[in-house]
Specification:
This protein is α/β, with parallel strands linked by helices and 180 residues long. Helices cover 48% and strands 22% of the residues. The strands form 2 sheets. A 5-stranded mixed beta sheet has the order 2-1-3-6-7, covered by helices on one side. A hairpin with a 6-residue loop joins strand 4 and strand 5. The termini are far apart.
Amino acid sequence: MFHRTPGVLRAMVAVAMVATCGMAVNAATQDAGKAATASAPMPTAIQTAKRVFLGNAGVDGMSIPAFRMSGDVNQPYNWFYAAMKNWGRYELVGSPADADLVFEISFAAPLVGADKLATFAPHLRLEILDAKTHFVLWTIVEPVEGAYRKATWEKNFTSGMTNLVSDLKNIAGETQTASK
């Protein structure tokens, strides 16, 4: 039979209490995180803005050759501009001084991973800035699947751009206004 000394019993009780408290704190933190996520406010400027300036933050150095081969180094900007025109939610203006918001679109394909396992992670990035304060209000990053064939690239890029604009529509409250 195992002989328990008072010191061993105290240690066992202490470990049990720490474990129990840790589980309680973890559960409370998870509940608080869920509540905070559910009630986090959206920047109202995104939903109330009327006029937007579209900025072209360009393409990273790793991606320039691919866009040159496709014939349009400004493809992310041109496609995003067309998508915004088609959506019609915001009036597109020619100067940041005339805008409520600045949407800055860019494309990057950073090398991620280590050594021989490294791979590219192409993505579109949209930063939404308050035109008056220049503060970033929101950032949307949408992955774009890589491709070897031009037709596959066009399909993947279109899918990434469609998803990015869909994300923007969600935060701009289009689904809320559509249901009213």
